[in-house]
Amino acid sequence: MLARLYEAFDPIDVESVAAFVYWLAESYGLRGRLRLLDMGCGTGRTLPSFTALGWSVTGMEPNTQLASRPEIVVGGFADLNEQNTYHIVTAINGPYSYLLARADRLDALSRVHRALLAGGIILLDVWNFIAALRHYADPPPVEKVVGGQHVRLQREHIFDFHHATISQVETYNLPDGSHHTLTHTLAILTQPQIAAELQDAGFDDIRTFPGYASRRPAPVTGSQMLIAARVP
Ligand SMILES: C[S@@+](CC[C@H](N)C(=O)[O-])C[C@H]1O[C@@H](n2cnc3c(N)ncnc32)[C@H](O)[C@@H]1O
Q1: Residue 186's beta-bridge partner residues?
Q2: Using one digit for the tens of pLDDT, what is the confidence trace for 180-229?
C-alpha cells in the first residue's frame, strides 16, 4: 500500500527521466547495450523505461516497504560491492540526500566509482533545498484518490540546524481512519558541495543540469539539481 501511495503523491515522468539519461550517456560517449544500476530506485518505477532503451537494468533499494518489484535488489549505497560492472549509476529523485554524513557520502561515491567501468558515469538527482528558501512555507495537506479511496497526505518538516538536515514526516490518512507514516531525513546539500565530493571520490568531467528537459550542461537554477560525472 505504501508503495502505491508514494507513487501517487510523488509522481515523476519516468519517460523523460529515461530520455534524459539516454541523451546523457550518448553525450559522454556511451552507446550500445549499456548496463545501468538505479540506486535508491524506490518502487522501481523507472526500471521498465530504462529496460525499454535496450539496456540491462538493475535496481537497488533499501526500503522493503517501497521495493515492490521482485527484480529489485534490497540494499543501499553502503551495500554496493560490485567492481567494473556498470556503464551508468543513477540516483533519481533524491537518494543521495539520505546520506547524512560526509563520510557516508564519500563511501557511497567510492563504491559507485568502483562499480563503474572506466568512462562510466554517475547521475545524482538532488533536491536543491536552498531554492525553497525564497518562498518557504510548511507544506499544505494534499488530497488524492488512490485505488478508489480518498487519501489525505500531511507533511511536516523538522529542521536540525546543527547537522543541516530536514526530516519530512509524511502521514497518509485513509478514509477508514487508518494511516501510514513515512519519514525521510535528508541532508541539506548544495551544488558546490556535491561537486567537491565527486572530485574527492575521483570523478571528473562534472556537468550540471537544471532538469530532465535539459539537453546541454547548464547551471542549476531551481529546486532540482542534476549532477553527472565520469570515471576517468
Ligand atoms: C524520494 S525516493 C526516490 C525513489 C525512486 N528513485 C523514484 O524516483 O521513484 C528516495 C529513495 O532513496 C532511498 N534511500 C534511502 N536511503 C538510501 C541509501 N542509503 N542508499 C540508497 N537509497 C536510499 C529511499 O528508501 C527512497 O526509496
Answers
A1: 166
A2: 999 999 999 999 999 999 999 999 999 999 999 999 999 999 999 999 99
Cβ-count burial of 94 within 10 angstroms (0-12 exposed, 13-18 middle, 19+ buried)?
Answer: middle
Q: What residue's CA is closest to ligand 1, atom 10? A: 95
| Assigned C-alpha cell, 24 | 546523457
Region of 18 please: left (phi>0), alpha (psi -120 to 50) or beta.
alpha
State in Å: Cα 119 to ligand 1 middle: 25
How does strand 204-209 pair with strand 224-230? antiparallel
pTM for the model: 0.96
What amino acid is encoded at 195 in this protein? A
Q: 204 alpha carbon to ligand 1 midpoint, in Å?
A: 24
User: Ligand 1: which of 63, 109, 123 to mutate, judged by most atoms within 8 Å of the beta carbon?
Assistant: 63
Residues 67-118 have pLDDT tens digits of 878 889 999 999 999 999 999 999 999 999 999 999 999 999 999 999 999 9
Quote the ligand 1 centre to 96 CA distance (angstroms): 8
d(CA 157, CA 201): 31
94 lines ligand 1 (CB under 6 A): yes
